[in-house]
Each structure stands twice: as structure tokens, then as C-alpha cells.
Amino acid sequence: MSLELVFQYLVSPTFIHGAIMTLLITVSSLVFGLLAGFLLALLNQVKFPPVKWLTVFYLWLFRGTPVLFQIIFIYNVLPTFGIRLSAFASGVIALSLNEGAYMAEIIRSGLQAIKSGQRTAGMALGMTRTMVLRHVVMPQAARIMLPPIGNQTIGMLKTSALVSVIAVEELLLVANQTASATFRYFEALSAAGIYYLALTTIFMAGQYWMERALEPKRSRVEKRSLLSALLQPAEDKH
């Protein structure tokens, strides 16, 4: 065990690049997953049966198969149809499609939590459906959706390590390759673990401050400390 070697790994360009790649995969997959989830949540409210069935099929497919299977499938099968993507793009697409299925349920439940009377009141004031969604529904739904979305973000950070199976040079692959070359598994994996914990802490702190910013009655309710927010267990989706 060498703490000096752990520090050398932490500041090495290879590990820094791996951490940046992990962060990029996480953020990209989360953004595209949110967009897909929002679209699916809206389509799920459409009463036209073919659209409804297509949405249900999507949710069934991507929630019913392992993320690792989806990553390998997209990376290896799409080229047989003439669609050639980089390993990074394949990983992000697979994670985004999977994330969209879970985000759809979060967004759907958030939207449905807003009483229909508020929508009706907005329409009575001359708002269009889009204006009601933007100015009435979404600000309230965001407070409901933020905690589970925060948990999904932390889960995505850890799930991003799965793209190492298609040789994306993210943090876990860098640590594993370094350990295989030097046989210093403890030091290499410890450095990777520190990066994961640091990124998780940043995301959890960001979620905490966003929840406080969106809370309209925070002066009248018991404020949760940042430490308690970091120590609260998050529910993993996988």
C-alpha cells in the first residue's frame, strides 16, 4: 500500500482524462435521457392507441433488459445495418435510451401530481396548453421530480462504468488497465474510487442546493443540512 502512488495516480493525466470522460458520459446521457423521458411522458398521455402502445413497448423493452446488454447490442449490432458509431457514441446512446425509460416514469408521476384544476384555471385565464405546461405545471412538478432525478444522476455516474466493456476510456477502464500493467490494484482502484466519491459528492451537493432554491416555504419548514443530504441513502435503479 502506497499513499504516494495513489496521489500520483490522482494527478496523472491518464486518470484525469478518465474522470473527465466519466463526467462527460454521465452528463450527456442524463441530458438526452431527460429529453427522451419528457417526450415519452407527454406521449404517454396521448389517447391515440398506437402512440400509447409504442410508448409502453419502449418502457417495457428498456426497463426489462440489462443496461449492459443494451450497450453491447448497440455497439455490435448497429454496424451490421451500416450504422457505424464510435464506442463513446454507442455508450451514450445506450445509456440515454435506458435512462429515458426511467425518467419518463419520474416525469409522468410529477406531471400527474399537479391537480387538473390548476390547468383549468390557467386555461380560463387565456393561457394556451403550452403556456400552462411551462408556467403552471412544470415549476410545481420540478420540486416533486428533483429528488428522484438527483438519485438517477448519481446512479448514472456509477452506471457509466459499464461502457468500459466496449473500450471507452472512462475512469474504471483506466484504473483497471493501470492496475493490470503495474499489479498495484489497491492504489489504482483507490484512486478511481476517490474520483467517484468526489463526483458523487458534487452531484449530491448540487441536488441539495437546487432543492433549497425550489422550496417556496423553506423559511417555514425544517431545513435539511448538507451533511444529512450527503449521508441520505440514494435508491439505485439497477
UniProtKB/TrEMBL annotation:
GO biological process: amino acid transport
UniProt main location, coarse: membrane
Membrane topology reported for the UniProt record: Multi-pass membrane protein
GO cellular component annotations of the record: ATP-binding cassette (ABC) transporter complex
SUPFAM superfamilies: MetI-like
Keywords for the protein's UniProt record, in alphabetical order: Amino-acid transport, Cell membrane, Membrane, Transmembrane, Transmembrane helix, Transport
Record InterPro entries: AA_ABC_transptr_permease_3TM, ArtM/GltK/GlnP/TcyL/YhdX-like, MetI-like, MetI-like_sf
Subcellular localization, as worded in the UniProt entry: Cell inner membrane; Cell membrane
Gene3D superfamilies assigned to the protein according to its UniProt record, in alphabetical order: MetI-like
ABC transmembrane type-1 domain location: 19-207
Molecular function (Gene Ontology), one example: transmembrane transporter activity
TM stretches of this protein: 20-43, 55-75, 81-98, 188-210
Family indicated by similarity: Belongs to the binding-protein-dependent transport system permease family. HisMQ subfamily.
Function, in words: Part of the ABC transporter complex GltIJKL involved in glutamate and aspartate uptake. Probably responsible for the translocation of the substrate across the membrane.
Subunit and partners: The complex is composed of two ATP-binding proteins (GltL), two transmembrane proteins (GltJ and GltK) and a solute-binding protein (GltI).
Record-given protein name: Glutamate/aspartate import permease protein GltK
Organism: Nitratireductor indicus C115
Lineage: Bacteria, Pseudomonadati, Pseudomonadota, Alphaproteobacteria, Hyphomicrobiales
